[in-house]
Design goal:
The protein contains 16 helices and 19 strands. By secondary structure, the chain is of the alpha+beta class. The longest helix has 33 residues, at 182-214. The mean pLDDT is 91.
Length: 399
């Protein structure tokens, strides 16, 4: 950015890596007029002096929200890393930033993951200065005569982070004088953050094992056993639910959204979940679908080839006796189907076959009468189910 933190980080990393292994990236948000341009030019000038590659981009300067600016900046850095074939993106977040982030999350509402703060590494993103304070960075910059520019917007308290920085942190640091001082306080915060992060990682492992035991992911939905989920503590439910839904969403659930979904589950009610996900409950199972999965529910590749019935979408192969193959059609369940004098829906409910699975339940119907002759999971000596890969719940219980 041209500020003291990132310019100091640049100096330190340049001491560790050859210039050929390092790409400098700066994004001009265009929010401060000439000052924004001046900062970008400082970065370009220093890169030229050091003969290091520099990638520069410019925003439109229309949206000033913290969330938008962060998203805009991250998108640029990820694109630059891909274009330049870089393994890591290194940013200059320090321990003061970590404390600000934890306090911001506490005020907005957070849990264990939020209280653990930023991670030193998350995928491509590295934050090597997290254990270093702002004061230490400024001392290093002064001792090494590192050039930098100050951003006057860092003192504008209409930004939430700046409000924390200028109205809350000074009082915290003042109180900390009686308990070892500011530097000692920041080190305690970092130690707490590390412990909470390790606890979160341990709980994640537990959640993954639990999900593996209670849930099944398919191309059409994610299925979760209702009763065992209800027996979990509220914290376990929240973590399990967020982890289960993460592959279906672009953004993880907030705490408020998670509580809303857990409350619906407790009431045995389906609901719509932020991010375009629908949850339904049937026969002791929870089913979660995103919009793409909902659109793919109409399977059209049921094929009869002589005495062989095939459905690639379900990994299904069925062999029919010749006397049966001549007189039946192969299709999916429909709400009006009957078997004898009984509605097929009633029979399937008695067998505890969930509504979502009934929608893709293969069955054979008599060509003349339209009556159901057989459905998957029903025994018939004239029918041999050679293979079924799709994880229907009723087949799991049969096994």
């Amino acid at each position: 950015s041209g500020g003291v933190d990132s310019m100091t980080l640049w100096h330190v990393v340049s001491e560790l890596l050859s210039k050929e292994r390092l790409v400098i990236a700066t994004f001009n948000h265009s929010l401060r007029g000439k000052a924004s341009t001046r900062d970008a030019r400082l970065v370009e000038r220093v890169a030229k002096q050091r003969k290091q590659q520099c990638v520069v981009a410019k925003g439109l300067g229309k949206n000033k929200s913290e969330a938008f600016l962060r998203k805009e900046r991250r998108a640029f850095l990820l694109a630059a890393a891909r274009h330049e074939n870089c393994d890591f993106i290194v940013t200059a977040h320090h321990s003061d930033d970590q404390l600000e982030t934890i306090l911001m999350r506490m005020i907005r509402g957070t849990g264990l993951d939020g209280l653990s703060g930023m991670k030193r590494q998350r995928g491509k993103w590295l934050k090597p200065f997290l254990g270093v304070s702002k004061d230490e960075i400024e001392r290093y910059a002064k001792q090494n005569k590192i050039p930098f520019h100050s951003d006057h917007t860092n003192s504008e308290i209409h930004y939430f982070r700046n409000e924390i920085r200028h109205q809350i942190l000074p009082n915290l640091f003042k109180v900390s004088r009686r308990h070892g001082g500011k530097e000692a306080f920041l080190k305690k915060v970092m130690a707490m953050s590390q412990e909470l992060s390790e606890a979160s990682t341990l709980l994640d492992k537990v959640s993954r094992r639990r999900l593996s035991a209670l849930s099944v992911q398919t191309s059409l939905w994610t299925r979760l056993e209702w009763e065992p989920f209800q027996k979990l503590s509220s914290m376990e439910q929240s973590r399990t639910l967020r982890k289960l839904l993460r592959p279906l969403q672009t953004q993880p659930l907030t705490r408020k959204e998670t509580r809303y979904v857990c409350a619906a589950i407790e009431r045995s009610e389906g609901c719509d979940i932020p991010g375009g996900i629908h949850m339904s409950i049937s026969c002791g199972y929870l089913f979660f679908q995103n919009k793409k999965q909902m659109s793919e529910m109409k399977i059209k590749d049921l094929v009869i080839e002589g005495r062989e019935l095939v459905c690639e979408s379900l990994g299904l192969e069925i062999h029919l006796a010749p006397e049966l193959a001549r007189r039946v059609n192969f299709r999916f369940f429909s709400p009006g189907d009957r078997q004898g004098k009984t509605k097929l829906k009633r029979i399937l409910l008695e067998r505890r076959i969930p509504m979502m699975e009934r929608k893709v339940l293969p069955l054979l119907v008599d060509k003349a009468s339209g009556e159901t002759v057989w459905f998957l999971s029903q025994a018939n000596p004239l029918i041999h189910v050679k293979k079924v890969d799709f994880p229907f719940s009723f087949l799991d219980s049969a096994r």
